[in-house]
Every structure is written in structure tokens, then in C-alpha cells.
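Dear colleague,

Following up on yesterday's call, I've attached the two folding results inline so they're easy to grep. Please treat them as preliminary; we haven't cross-checked anything against experimental data yet. The first protein's sequence and C-alpha cells come first.
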Amino acid sequence: MTSLPEDAAPSAVFRTSPLAVLGAVAIAFCFTPVAFAAPFLWLLYLVPIAMAVWVLRVRTTVDGEALTVRRIIGGRRVPWSEISSLRLGSSKGSGHRISAMLSDGAELPLPAVGVRDLPQLAAVSGGRLPDPAGEA
């Protein structure tokens, strides 16, 4: 049994459940009768493949030093010193999204982070973010 070092900083990974890949497999299964009916309909399989890649790749990782956002292509690591606040919802009308507002005024969407994840995000931030469920 291995143990973590006592000085190891806590971290959290927010991601879509890998179980969602089963949905992509089900869609691929449903596409099978149609996929070979005509030339190039096999390209329908690109939809479930893209879904599976998205589920397995996109995530937000938080530790005591920085916040890391990983997208399908690329990613970004932002130290806590560059984050001024969090924003619930976005200007695009998606009310359940969380974004980090950066010091330069830019907005960084945090994939797979929801409102219910805010207490855990605050705990891992090392006090840099207030706990919304905490006592006043």
C-alpha cells in the first residue's frame, strides 16, 4: 500500500463521466444498418468517434497552484494569481456553466465544472476562492 506524502497538495479533476462513451457506442451500433447502405455513409461513424474523444479528453484539473483546462485540441494552465473571480453562466445564455474571469478581462470556460462542484473547487483552491456553502 502506498501513501501520499504529507506535503502533497490536494487536487481535483472535473470531467464528464467516462460512462458516456457507452452512449457513443450505442449510437455507432444504431448507425450500422445505415452506414453501408450507400457510398460514404460510413462517415456517420465519425459522430460517435468524436463524442468518445470529447468525453475522454475534455476536463478541468485544479490544484493548489493553478487551474488547468484541457480541450479536444490543446489546453491552458492558468495560475491562481491570474484568476480574479468565477462567473456563473455566460454571455451565451448557458446558465449552468462556470467560467474563470482572468485578470486581463478574458473569460475561460471551465468544462465539466458545475454549480454543485463549487465547494470542492473552493477547497482545492487553498482559500483563493470563497466556499459558497460556507457559513458567513
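Below is the second protein, in the same order (sequence, then structure):
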Amino acid sequence: MEKKRILLLDMYGVIIKESKGYFIPYSYEHMENRHHDSLTKAFFEEGLFTKAQNGDLSSDEFLSLLGYSNPTETMQDYLRNFLTFDKDFLWFAENNYKQYNFVLLSNDVVEWSKYIFKLYGLNKYFKESIISGDIHMRKPDSQIFHYAIKHMQCNPHECFFVDNSVKNLNAANKSTGINTILFNRDNEVYSGNTVYNFKELNEILKNI
């Protein structure tokens, strides 16, 4: 039996349409003005969001430090109502998950990623999830791409990495030689393979 190739997929900007999420604007919208200075300090000086995505804080700890009185409810509200799931992904996944091993490679808070997977029934399609909050590494650090290759026990030429960030793609290709595809939601300029939707991704995988 021919060995399946690996399809490394980003979450935000690929499966979720918002390329950088929406949580910082969400917080300013949901907190009273008198809390905005403390939010700015938490996000931009103390780096609490980055710490949560690095696994140094749980979702509940992170949201509580921001001042949310019901962190679980806040997480669910944000992920359900303020992010846009690209429904074309389900069509794409049904057409490809038996030919490829789908692996999520995402900078995210662990609990958030798990909730999104459950919410949209993604476990059916993914063999593995590599989340920054689980492994304490983040894109575009080259370490996370080496980790993915080693963890999946594959050669770089057997992998396709789909991300919305040119910076992440360049880091992955330069450090490991992984094949890269830009999912271009933000009209970035990229010299490599580029797609704008899942139908185009489906076609390019047929032809590579």
C-alpha cells in the first residue's frame, strides 16, 4: 500500500476565515471602556495572549486574568459567534482525507482548538493536531516544523504545508524543505504555490 502523504493545515486563515482570529477586538468590544487600558497592558505589554498560545496559561487562567467572570462561557461565545468557519473545508476534507493524513499545525490555545474541533466535527478528518499550546513552540520558529516532521515520522518531500502566512511558509520551507502552499486570504505576494479557496487547493494537490 502506498504511504499517505501529510497535509499540514493551519487553522486561522485557512479553516477559519479570520486570518488572525478576532479575539483582541472582541475583548475591547465586550469590556467596558474603563477596562481598556488594562486590556492593552495585558495584550501588548504582558503578552498574555502569546503566553496562552504557548501553553503557559490555560484558557480559563488567561480569560480570568483579562477580567472575564465566566471564562468558559466567554470562550464558547467567541469561538461560536465571532469566527467564521469555512464550510468549503468540509467538502475539501471529504474529498481528500482518505488520500492524505490531515494534520493541524496551529498557533492556538489548547482548549480553543479542541472546542473548534468538537464544534465542527473535525476529528473525523484529522490524524493529528500539533498545537503551539501543547508543545510550547510557535510558528514561524523553525523548531515547530522540525517537530512536525519528526512527530509524523515523514520526509519533508512527503508533506504539504498550507498556511495563510508567507512568513510561516518561508520558515517551513527554508528549515525543512516541506512543500508549501499559500492560502491567500490577505492578498499577500508569494513566489510559490498559491490558492484562494478550497476548490483551488483541491485542484493544485491533484496536479503537484
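For the second protein, one point worth flagging: Residues 23-81 form one domain.

Best wishes,
A.L.
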